[in-house]
Write a structure and sequence with these properties.
The chain is mainly α and about 120 residues long. It has 2 domains: about 10-55, Orthogonal Bundle (434 Repressor (Amino-terminal Domain)); about 65-105, no CATH class. The chain contains 5 helices and 2 strands. The protein has helices at about 10-15, 20-25, 35-50, 55-65, 80-95; strands spanning about 70-75, 100-105. Strand 1 (about 70-75), helix 5 (about 80-95) and strand 2 (about 100-105) form a beta-alpha-beta unit. GO terms for molecular function: DNA-binding transcription factor activity; transcription cis-regulatory region binding. Keywords: DNA-binding, Transcription, Transcription regulation. InterPro entries: HTH_LacI, Lambda_DNA-bd_dom_sf. This is Putative LacI family regulatory protein.
Length: about 120
């Protein structure tokens, strides 16, 4: 069974602060915008305890970048492509990126055999 993802809203409620304050602290801007040291420490401690992980989708909206690596392959049954795809997925997860896959079979040109 999948567990519910911890959100900034959850952290804010547990810390007794607003979502905006929790967001500032979790994005490293708390000190700059004069959030009290005690509040920053409380928010960060709760985030650690709750195993908070920022949403890649929220990060994409903030940065105006997709943080997605695309892979286009001609077939998915080829062992080499399968291994490469698996390794790409592993690397993406480790670097907080997303992987997107596209299967593209080129149509043969007149006179060609198959999709070679």
């Amino acid at each position: 069974m999948k567990t519910k993802r911890v959100t900034i809203k959850d952290i804010a409620e547990l810390a007794g602060v607003s979502k905006a304050t929790a967001s500032l602290v979790l994005n490293g801007r708390g000190k700059e915008l004069r959030v009290a040291q005690e509040t920053r420490e409380r928010v960060l401690a709760i985030a650690r305890e709750q195993h908070y992980q920022p949403s890649i989708h929220a990060r994409s909206l903030r940065d105006n970048r997709s943080h997605t690596i695309g892979l286009v392959v001609p077939e998915i049954t080829n062992y080499g492509f399968a291994v490469f795809s698996h390794e790409l997925e592993t690397l993406c997860r480790g670097s907080r990126r997303a992987a997107a896959y596209l299967l593209h079979r080129r149509k043969p040109r007149p006179g060609e055999r198959g999709g070679q």
